User: Fold these one by one.
Assistant:
Number 1:
Amino acid sequence: MGRRLTRRQFVTRSACVAAGVTVGFQAPALLKAAASDKWGDLVGRFVYDGVAPERKKLKVDKDLDCCGKFDIRDESLMVGEDGGLGNVYVYVRSRDVDFCPELEESAEAHVLLDNRDCIFIPHCMTIWCEKQEFSIVNSDPVAQNVAFSPLGDVPANIVLPPPPDEASKATWTFRRKQNIPVPIACNYHPWESGYILPREHPYVAISAMDGTFRIPKLPADTLEFQVWHERVGYLATPEWSKGRFEMAVKPGVNDLGTITLAPSTFEK
């Protein structure tokens, strides 16, 4: 159910003045906004402005009978065929945000991480830590490990034997929200990596491989947002200091447009 608490107010300014933003990008699948005068959707698209570098083939030197048969490559910069940039996190940074009751009613009970083909699937995740459990499964015929250390929360170091062992499945509960995504590692297979962002609300999006994202049913209010990518952390532009922007969310669709990012942004 929704909550009404006193919220910190921010000075309103449009995020659409950010460098590289083209106002008016319209993705049909993203334009079905919340049908209420209290809620609005935030949509947009991230584009890598250049030729995407070839994804580096990772060193696979353990459990070769299983893992050696897969073409395992770096997932830290995922650029689609049309230049869309995947795995960009966009999430509400403001505190004490009302959330739409429909989101609570429709939230899945679990968020699933699959150890499959000797990688983590999906690579990037989010979880509503007050409402959802983290489910982990090993689908490979070799033992796997899932390890992560959320700031101020209990660290995890979970061993998953191969199926059909019952211990090939596990659940975990995050007890504290995180301000940035938490890295996930496998101590058995060092090339495996992933991220999960536990938040106290459902307002998190991760861009798809075409670069599009959507945060549905936001409260119609002035909110601060955070943008994050694993290559650089806070995804800053000249107008988005530390990857943050404020926006007065209005009922209906709030379109950030196309956010174009130079390759130099992601150089390590």
Note: The longest helix spans residues 101-106.
Number 2:
Amino acid sequence: MASMPDAWPRRVYAVVRQIPPGRVASYGLVGLLAGRPLAARAVGNALRRCDDPLVPCHRVVRATGEPAFPNHRIRLRREGVRFIGRRVDLARHLWSPRLPSASPGARPGKDRAPSARRQ
């Protein structure tokens, strides 16, 4: 069983393994999908320590589309990713994962607090 400190990196690696060749995701998107919105820096820290060759770390880029490391740009180009200047063409290559649907029986807005202005 994974210890608590290992759980976060494993979730990050699982998300990154899902990014298909020719697509990229931002650090923030990976954090969101791994269960920690606003954790872009924590994603970067987890990927920096990754030594698993099956985790395509080069497919995770900054929110601006810039690869974090120069060799990542080379690897992305080999996968067919196009660049506009120094940035990935995010309109063409941003990964759009399928998000899990809401649980059965859940209705939008059902969890909201009642409005104080109702009459």
Note: The radius of gyration is 18 Å.
Number 3:
Amino acid sequence: MIKPTIATTVMKNLLKLEELAQFLACVIILKWVIGVQWWVYLLLLIGPDIGMVGYLFNAKVGAITYNLFHHKGIALVVVLISWVSGLVVMPFAGHLFITGIILYGHASMDRIFGYGLKFGDNFHRTHLGWIGRGEAVGAEREAGQGQ
């Protein structure tokens, strides 16, 4: 297993602080800019995890559906669509904006805890590294001991 250095630990903590700032910005937008109801915060915390339903089929489908709900670029596209549709006075533009903010905020929250976008081969393998029970498997693979 590769031992983390002080520099890598500091960098990981800086990235977590950056994600925390993004998450808090989403909360501020929802609370003070839009003024959403209390239950919207529950959606922020758990709503996008509906993407895990794809894992009922297999790891590849699960990774695709999970990543659709946890990709910050997709969240920003939803926000952009809400802005453009708001220019043509679409009644659902506000809901799209809230949806985009929830998706973005949730992705930031997950990354604070080390959960990243999923690879299609294993639920525990993310772009941030191995998580949960997969950490031991990931450590073995990195060390070249197992496959």
Note: The chain has a mean pLDDT of 88.
Number 4:
Amino acid sequence: MTKVLRVVGPPGSGKTLLIVSLVEALRSRNYRVATAVKREAIESSLLDPDVSRQLDAGAIATVISLSNGGRVTLERVMPLPGLASVLASIDPSVDLLLAEGFDDPGYPAIELLAPGDHTTETPNDDLLAIVASNEIRGAFETFGPGETNGVAELVEREILSTEADVTMQLTINDQPVETFGFVKDMIARPILVMVEQLKGVDLPRSVRINIRRRTRD
């Protein structure tokens, strides 16, 4: 599954600035990053005119920016598990989804606070870091996107670990076949996404599929 990090905070706290800087910093480390933002957190000025018109008309509830620069718009707000599954199916190579404006519990979050404010809304179990909004603005204005005052390093260490989150063993005609990143992304991740959509199936830790081709006489 795609790893998810929520960026939360009051309006105008610098969530979008932090996300822009995180995307730049993590991409410079060769991570593929996508973003998602709900309607109430979207700044129309950051979007192209056509998307802005749809947003103002209420035709868009969620905007997803893919790791390749493409954009997907949804007419409804989806819970993060479903949103992560949709993203994994259309962009399976994504390493991280940065979600702005989502309050789904159970996902790590960075919360931005105004200077002097020490009251957080995020449960402690989900809280990865607290960031002062003025620090992000100052870093952005001084150094431009990509400077995160150590937040990118924290995300890399705590969320984007070097250990593979999905492993796969492939056997063809009873012979093991070595698989690398691209093959694993094209086979294992989409299968996990589809299996998770099956009724009555909880988050699967392992999936075993045996496919046999019938030989013809």
Note: The chain has six helices and nine strands.
